[in-house]
Amino acid sequence: LKVERENEAKECFDKVVEYDKELKSTLVDDAYGGLGELFYQKGNIMEAITHYQRAIEIEPEEADYRIDLGEILLKEKRPEDAIEHLKKAVQLEPANAEGFYHLCKAHLQKRDFRSALESIKKAIKIEQDNYEFYKLLAVIYGEFNLQYRKEEAERTAYELEPKIGIVHVPA
C-alpha cells in the first residue's frame, strides 16, 4: 500500500478489531502479528512492537508472538524486556528451541553467561542439528575461557553448517 493508503487501511482494520473482539475470533491476533511483522520489515520498529503487544493482549498464550517481539526487543538493545517475553514463550512451549535460542542471546546482551549457557543447552537438547546454536555455544564457552569446549562447539557448527547451494532455515 502507498503511505497515504496505509493510514486508511489501519483505521479500517482497527474498526474490524473492535467489532471482532465481541466475536472472540482468533483471526485478529493473527492480523496483529502479521502487522507487527510487516512494520518490522519496513523498519517501523515502534509500530511493530505495538502490534505484537496487541496480538499478545488478545492471545497471551501464543508463544510465537512473544518470540517475535523478544527478537525485536533484542535488536533494540532491550534485553530485560526481551527476557520477560522469551521466558514466558518457553514456559508456554517448553519444546521451542527458537525461544531458548533468543533467550540465550538476551542473556548474552546482559552478559549473564551462566543463564545464556543454560538456555542454549536447552535449545540444543531440543534441536541438535542447528549450527547456529553451536556457534553461540562456542561464543559462550569462549567467555568462560574453555578453549577445548569452544573449539569442539565450533567444529560441530562447521560440520552442521549448510554447504553452498543448500539453504538451511532454522525452525
Commentary on this structure:
The chain is mainly α and 171 residues long. It has helices at 3-21, 27-41, 45-58, 63-75, 79-92, 97-109, 113-126, 131-143, 147-160. Helix 4 packs parallel to helix 6 and helix 6 runs antiparallel to helix 7 (113-126). The longest helix has 19 residues, at 3-21. It is elongated. The two termini are 30 Å apart. Mean pLDDT is 87; it is low at 164-169.
List the helices and strands and how they pair.
Layout (H helix, E strand, L loop, with lengths): L2 H19 L5 H15 L3 H14 L4 H13 L3 H14 L4 H13 L3 H14 L4 H13 L3 H14 L11
Summed up:
The protein is mainly α and 171 residues long. 75% of the residues lie in helices and 0% in strands. The model is unreliable at 164-169 (pLDDT under 50).
SSE order, one letter for each helix or strand: HHHHHHHHH
What percent of the residues sit in helical stretches (DSSP H or I)?
Answer: over 70%
Oligomer class: single chain
Largest sheet: none
Number of strands: 0
Q: Which regions contain 5 or more consecutive residues with pLDDT less than 50?
A: 164-169
Average pLDDT reading? 87
Distance between the termini: 30 Å
Secondary-structure-based class equals mainly alpha
Relative strand content: under 5%
Q: Helical region count? A: 9
Rounded radius of gyration (Å): 19 Å
What does the overall shape look like?
elongated
